[in-house]
Amino acid sequence: MLSQLLEQFTHTEFQTRNPATVTGYARQCRAFLRSLGTEPLVADFTRKSAQAFIDHLGNTRRPRTCRRHLAAIRAFGDWLVTMKQLEYSPAESVKAPRMDPPRRDRPTTEQVIRMRDACTRIENPYRQALMRAVVSTFIYSACRRAELLALNLDDVDHDRKCIEIRHGKGNRARAVPIDGQCYEAIAAYLELRPACAKDALFLIRKGMRLGDGGLRTLLRQVMTAADMRNSKALLPHGLRHAAATRMHQAGYTIEDLQPFLGHSDPATTGLYLHTDAERQRVAQRYAALPGDPGTPTAAPPPPELLPPTAIPAPTKLRMVSGGIDPPRTERTEP
After folding, report:
1. pLDDT in tens, 235-248
2. Residue 225 in contact with residue 215, Cβ under 8 Å?
3. Across residues 124-152, what is the average pLDDT?
4. What is the C-alpha separation between 2 and 40, in angstroms, rounded?
């Protein structure tokens, strides 16, 4: 039956793919199998059944979500061909919906500052230190949720003041600088971290690595302390977008940010760079026609003179081949 083959597929893919990707594939393929009946057979996996599932999903989900489900079904279909369960993958000819533009809640600079400062309001000293270290790492390193949870003690390079992300998305490794407030927060946390055999960097309690559930509870607590309860913008991926935007506004290009964020495609990096409303208003005034009320008479200001970010990013370092070069002194800060 397909359900048993899906379990084998999931086990096999865990050997070569990112665990988060495989978990998503399994969840999305199970949704497809449910649409086929209670005990679907290989013969039930057809182009018609896969297309019907994607079309039905499109009635309530965004095209971007439908395409993720289709990618999972195609990966499963390719594996079935490899295992000689099918002669060809029926999902290959399924029509994918046109991609819609991404929608991402991104926090304002003021919200990020409130979240960072709210960590000091937590009464328990250890939990305060843990919360401050975790939140600072998200704010300043722009790491992913899974990357932070996977960090170990030896991933912190105290000499170079960076963290080694050994298994990023696509199993790509990179070094991320954490100079400044981020390093200070991690160092303060390490002074209180309980000694135990666990090599995990962040412990929710002695001997227990911080996991998804503990992280959700921790972030919920700091959002409540900041009076921004249930803010989706302040979730880890929103903070990642905000960090990339601040660095871009400080003058760093997509080529600079691509290795920092761990992207293989610069087009993906471009999706992380948002222009806030105030900068858009400044730029829009220079799109006015001559004679329009309020038309500027001077040339447009360079990007670095537009409203800057209020949160200083950590020392910007150029990363090459997994290592870090010293700061480029020839760059002039705005």
Report:
1. 898 888 888 888 87
2. no
3. 93
4. 6
